[in-house]
Amino acid sequence: MKAKPFVKWVGGKTQLIDQLEALLPADFDQWENVTYIEPFVGGGAMLFHMLQTHSNIKSAIINDINPDLTTCYRVVRDNPSDLVDSLQKIQEEYYSLENEEIRKDFYLRKREEFNTKTLDSIRNTTLFFFLNRTCFNGLYRVNKAGLFNVPFGRYETPMICDPNTIYADSELLQNVEILTGDYQQTLERAKGKTLFYFDPPYRPLNNTSSFNDYTKEAFNDLAQRRLKEFCDKVEAAGYKFIFNPEKQI
Ligand SMILES: C[S@@+](CC[C@H](N)C(=O)[O-])C[C@H]1O[C@@H](n2cnc3c(N)ncnc32)[C@H](O)[C@@H]1O
Hints:
This protein is α/β, with parallel strands linked by helices. 39% of the residues lie in helices and 11% in strands. The protein has a five-stranded parallel sheet with strand order 3-2-1-4-5, sandwiched between helices. Helix 3 crosses helix 7, helix 4 crosses helix 6 and helix 5 packs antiparallel against helix 6. The protein starts with 16 loop residues before the first helix and ends in a 6-residue tail after the last strand.
């Protein structure tokens, strides 16, 4: 079973893997003991690809500012069977609901529970998966108060529990260090031959555009400049980085 992203993520890069491979340094496969760092990991399409195709990666560090997402990575890595049990239960419950109105009501109650921000990591991750599969288009969007606010998605039998993917991902994540917070903290984890892969949020199309609101702070022009300065530091320290084809700087 191939490891792959366990969440649907806006801006997911599964379709761009071949183009991203082409951006790797030409001698990448000759590098030894590589450290791979993904400071904006999101759904991790490139992470799962890299770890399965480049055996010279000896250490990997991933980071995201979204603590609910990084908790999912930790639970998948450390407690896959508890997670599978819990997802199986919520899936059975959801499939047994009689009609769309009842499913919508169930969805809204789970969203409210998730937004209490008081849950243990298994429950939080269970609801994160549940909302990801049952909300409109698998979006992740928060309001100004940081609360998840995506509407119901009207799917009758979405795949909420996918044990094969969870177990395959868990195995692959065993040696991956998972950080939560701003991308800048990843530089101190670099050592020796290190490759960074940056996939930051898109620049907002305008001040009110909300499609990239992964967080309550928009990734605005100031944030883009701060990232450029960070890339300069990465380069000055002797490390390499790649960006998405559409975000080359
Ligand atoms: C375009 S998405 C990454 C998508 C990912 N490459 C994939 O394949 O799913 C950008 C990610 O950056 C995260 N993010 C936003 N601001 C951040 C910051 N200051 N530091 C770290 N992560 C941040 C968001 O939570 C989001 O998951």
